[in-house]
Amino acid sequence: MLLLSRLRRIILKHFMDLGWRSMLLIIACYIGSVWILLYAADETQLLAADSFFYWLLVTASTVGYGDLSPTSANGKLITAFYVIPLGLGLFGLAIGRVAAFMSYQWRKSVQGLKPIDCSGHILVVGWNENRTLELIKLLLREMEHQADKRRVILCVKADIENPMPEHIGFVKVNSHSKDEEMDRASVAQAASIIIDNSDDDATMTAALYCTGRNPDAHTIAYFNQEKLGQLLKKHCPNVECMPSVAIEMIAKSTMDPGSSALHHELLDVDQGMTQYSIIYNHSNSSSVAHIFPYLKAEYEATLIGIKHGDDQRLNINPCLSEEIDSGDRLFYIADERIENIDWQAAQKSQ
User: Fold this and answer.
1) Contact (Cβ atoms closer than 8 angstroms) between residue 48 and residue 56
2) 82 has pLDDT over 80
3) Phi-psi map region of 129: left, alpha, beta (phi>0 left; psi -120 to 50 alpha)
4) For residue range 148-183, what is the model confidence (pLDDT) as tens digits?
5) Among 283, 301, 293, which Cα is nearest to 343's?
6) Is 112 left (phi over 0), alpha (psi -120 to 50) or beta?
7) 114, 182, 204, 225: least CB-packed within 10 angstroms?
8) What is the spatial distance between Cα 16 and Cα 72, in angstroms, rounded to a whole number?
9) Is the pLDDT of residue 7 over 70?
């Protein structure tokens, strides 16, 4: 018994180490040898083209429907001592290898080792633990209200696995500035790039690289030190630099109690009034004096700011006489995002 057990372990080990080609060759030899043995046993009914593979599969897997079976004594012996024992082992091995392969591919995806081929997505570069996780959750909630749902891809250097495998793509790299690594996250095809590392120097390096690879993407970089954001802005004027506002928020709440709660409500996508933006795409110009009351009356929305064309400056609390041209971005507060605004009706209300 000890010898048989050892022999079994040796055979099993060698079978598990087999490559796909070797395993397919063994299965092909098994199928061929079964056909030859049945032919020698004169089991002609089992050798028909439409019966042989069906019978062999249900017999080797021990399903055994019984609609086809050997009739001769030799055929029964061949089935009992060769087809079933060897076939069952090969069947189990094949199923195990396929399951292991599928599991390996899934693990590669979770570990961020597989390239992701997509375009028009939101690429989050960097990992700041709970802050990054909260950012992704907010992005996914925002996507629920968007007609054009974009995929979110997380690209990190940190030693982690995909924190939300059912909702986002995940790529793990050794550097945020190497082409062969960042191409796995489709950096050149991203519509928006958010860069947030715990180290500002790493954020600066990643921002410069991503802007060089994808200058047309809407790139946002978060800095703890505002001076580094200002330095990046000089070299990459299209990058939106997001400074840390924690200190400013403390000072503001000290002088105007409740300011922190106000800002929290404006940013919360689950409850309260939230800030959104939309492009004014009517051919005729208008003014704040006409758009402001129209948004309030028709959509219960409050206009709070305007960004004119390619101008990087944002005009908060614009005066009533300020002109609004086609292509200007309007920022407003509302309960929900307004997908389409009837600008023609707004023109008629003037």
Assistant:
1) no
2) yes
3) left
4) 788 999 999 988 888 888 899 999 999 999 999 999
5) 283
6) left
7) 225
8) 35
9) no
Q: What is the pLDDT of residues 186-220, one digit of tens each?
A: 999 999 999 988 888 999 999 999 999 999 999 98
Q: Give SS3 for 291.
A: helix
Residue with tokens 């947030």: 196
177-195 in b/e form (b: 16+ CB < 10 A) is eeeebbbbbbbebbbbbbb
Helix (H, G, I), strand (E, B) or coil at 287: strand
Task: Check residue 121 and report its DSSP letter.
Answer: -
Instruction: With cut-offs at 50, 70 and 90, classify the pLDDT of residue 6.
Output: low
Helices (H), the chain: 2-16, 20-40, 52-60, 73-78, 84-110, 130-144, 179-182, 200-213, 226-235, 246-255, 259-267, 288-299, 343-348
Task: Say what percent of the chain tops pLDDT 90.
Answer: 24
Mean of pLDDT over the chain: 82
Which of 145, 316, 125, 286 has the alpha carbon at shortest distance from 210? 125
Read off the tokens for 31: 């199928």
pTM above 0.85?
Answer: no
DSSP 3-state of 316: strand
Give residue for tokens 């996508």: 269
Whether the predicted pLDDT of 272 surpasses 60: no
Look up residue 240 and give its two tokens: 């939106």
For residues 327 and 282, the answer to whether their CB atoms sit within 8 Å is: no
Q: 3-state class of 339 per DSSP? A: coil
* Residue 277 structure tokens: 């933006």
* 185 within 8 A of 123, measured Cβ to Cβ: yes
> Which H helix or E strand runs over 240?
strand 240-243
In eight-state DSSP terms, residue 257 is T
